[in-house]
């Protein structure tokens, strides 16, 4: 949830900026140790002036830019983490987009001239960046963002390099860039819910990034899926080898880097999921805008991310289980499962522009009804395989349990479930009974067996409560 903020104060005064930048101006004539110390001193100066001073002021464009260049150019873990944390704190203290209270509700305020790690427009005036455009070479345009994710996939597959400082820097960079996209996206999402103004998202960093012709969106999504699957495999391997690792009493430099690398891999995984969720929400908003006739050809055209994810999961069945275990956001996890079923069990009517066929949307209750008899169950198993059906149903039931346990339930997700927990539990048990009828020797794996056990128990408890 975005925080309401007052307008940010003026940028750091010239004296503070000049004193801070002077630390770096002489760096070129010093050796590596002195350069490291100068950069560390510069970061501390920026922190002191812009975050912890009695009357802090936001850093200038040049100061922000210098911190970001340190993150990219440094060769030490200390400076990598220091510059990253400083950028994250500055982003929270001086947001580019925020909400303010007004008579009509919450109003979105966007500081377009503020510094950003992204260069998404070709018409930025020199005055907006505090100098010559050559200072923008290190910023991330859409092509470079795609290359970052691609490099991370290649490094993750290279066991000799995936604990190195460059790998850690890439993961930290992805986390920072996604955080920047999120801090711009969230207040816009809140403002959009009140105004339904598509322009709010047309000008968002995320939309401008994805509609660029420099982004091969399908490749970007495939690489993000690869990162999720690689992380899942590494977590499994770490669990298996945890006892062996615990026998090592004195960690060396390589093992210390491995620990830090694993921690940032987990955070990079969370960043990929955040990116996916933001794009899914953007696609949903774009569909609403299309329906109302608010979009144009100038908004660009690309395939919805859900379609690309489903293509990967249906053509690479081995991806399905690790992806569903890794992708934990309930609303969109359920949507992925429902759309997976719709590819094999008949799709709802196609929704056209300016039409509303929402009553045709598939729900989990609808899906479970397809397994109400042995004959219909057998027909679906022929198309999807028993293993895939079990996996999808068990993950969908897991989502139902998570939603039921939430204090504040999402109405949209509840609508997608389509029934009470008792109804879903009964239908889930019935579906597995019919799966057994199609194959008496069917193997039920531990995850699915646990879900079935819980469904039987929940059915008994909920029935007793109704008596």
TrEMBL record:
One record GO biological process? DNA damage response
Q: Which domain of life is it from?
A: Eukaryota
Q: What is this protein called?
A: Uncharacterized protein
Recorded hits in InterPro entries, A to Z, give:
SNI1
> Upper taxonomic classification of the species?
Eukaryota, Viridiplantae, Streptophyta, Embryophyta, Tracheophyta
Which GO cellular component term is one of those annotated? Smc5-Smc6 complex
- Which one of the record's GO molecular function terms can you name? transcription cis-regulatory region binding
